[in-house]
Amino acid sequence: MLRDELCNRTWKGLDGLMAAATRWLERFWSDGRRVLLLVGDEWLLVQANACSGSCLGS
Question: How far is C-alpha 24 from the geometric centre of its chain's CA atoms?
């Protein structure tokens, strides 16, 4: 995950940090199917469905 790429490292400046984050995110921009990896064991989907009615003011 992104924190594995960014945490516990020292950065000379914000530009280096932003470049590392951008490289990590580019993997998802270049292949939309990789976004499914962020869902994991469907916890995100379950949470989105659980609050869809109550969170949106329906």
Answer: 9
